[in-house]
Design brief:
This protein is of the alpha+beta class and 312 residues long. It folds into 3 domains: 117 residues, Rossmann fold, CATH 3.40.50.20; 64 residues, ATP-grasp fold, A domain (Dna Ligase, domain 1), CATH 3.30.1490.20; 106 residues, D-amino Acid Aminotransferase, Chain A, domain 1 (2-Layer Sandwich). 29% of the residues lie in helices and 29% in strands. The strands form 3 sheets. Strands 1, 2, 3, 4, 5, 6, 7 and 8 form an 8-stranded mixed sheet that branches. The longest helix has 16 residues. It starts with a strand and ends with a helix.
């Protein structure tokens, strides 16, 4: 099969823990032809979608990626599968890339479906499953934020389209910096931000469950550092082995149908103390840690299921 991956510049990646790199390794072992490109290279000319792509080889232990030849112009509809794997920010550049990829969606399998990647932002999409969520507010209305904090006392404030634990703040009724935090959010962007009731048991971990085509593939628990509220591995969270609980299965069953129907093939959900807080549809991570801790090869499951979709 011919595979091309839309991704961030390889120079910015930590290959040792990168899920995209793990998918590339498994694809290469299967004999797939691998190309990569960055979203800024997309070009739509008279209805033809092209990009400047680079053919690659990938190597494990030590992890490295080798460019085989010079960058060349390719037609994206000639590939069997296109993987969207660049990280947010979920800005107009990201959104425009989804629109461009949609122009060839009837010819090529794109994972995840760009229409639903665009229309299911992780911190908004999750609100469809309120029965499993902590109390949550999305707004720029300062009066509403104050009412929410007065009701719940301990809250988390974070960007609506952020990722990796960046700009996440804890506040409570004694916080003298509360006003400054809100002012900063209002100045950073014109978008609403998200406020959730703080879940104290985050100290016991933030579970990441990976779903492939709506089915559970594997999971890890991420423990925050001492004195930290964020468990993201980008900010020092420690991955540890975990088990899938009955509540986890109940949550996954509730969202599975939508994931399948929307073409959200590769998804990561975050669960803290039995509450789902986010559904990551852009670039979920954690599959290398799952393999290391549990022996489950999520990359193999990914390509097994992707091959079935191509052959249909």
């Amino acid at each position: 099969m011919k595979i091309i991956v839309q991704m961030d510049p390889i120079e910015t990646l930590n290959l040792a823990g990168d899920s995209t790199f793990a998918l590339l390794l498994e694809a290469q072992e299967r004999g797939y032809e691998l190309d990569i490109y960055t979203p800024n290279m997309l070009t739509l000319r008279d209805g033809l979608l092209t990009t400047e792509a680079q053919q690659i080889n990938v190597f494990d232990k030590p992890d490295r990626l080798e460019k085989i030849n010079q960058t060349r112009s390719v037609m994206l509809d000639k590939y069997d599968i296109i993987l969207m794997r660049q990280d947010p920010p979920f800005d107009m550049g990201y959104i425009t890339a989804t629109h461009l990829l949609e122009t060839i969606q009837h010819k090529t399998l794109i994972l995840n479906n760009p229409f639903y990647v665009r229309n299911c932002p992780e911190k908004i999409f999750v609100n469809k499953y309120l029965d499993f969520m902590p109390p949550t507010l999305i707004t720029r209305n300062v009066a509403e934020v104050i009412k929410f904090r007065n009701k719940h006392d301990q809250i988390i404030i974070k960007p609506l389209y952020g990722n990796g634990g960046a700009n996440v703040f804890y506040s409570d009724g004694t916080d003298r910096n509360f006003g400054s935090i809100i002012e900063n959010f209002l100045e950073w962007s014109k978008e609403p931000f998200i406020i959730q009731k703080f879940i104290p048991k985050v100290k016991d971990g933030d579970k990441r469950i990976i779903l492939i085509d709506g089915e559970i593939a594997g999971a890890i628990n991420r423990l925050p550092q001492e004195g930290e509220i964020r468990s993201n591995m980008h900010v020092g969270g420690q991955a540890i082995k975990t088990k899938i609980t009955k509540q986890d299965i109940k949550i996954c069953d509730a969202i599975s149908g939508d994931l399948k129907n929307f073409g959200l093939f590769f998804v990561g959900i975050d669960i803290i103390d039995n509450f789902i807080t986010e559904i990551n549809v852009t670039s979920p991570t954690g599959i290398r840690e799952i393999l290391e801790l549990s022996g489950i090869n999520v990359a193999k499951i990914f390509w097994d299921q992707a091959e079935k979709k191509v052959s249909k």
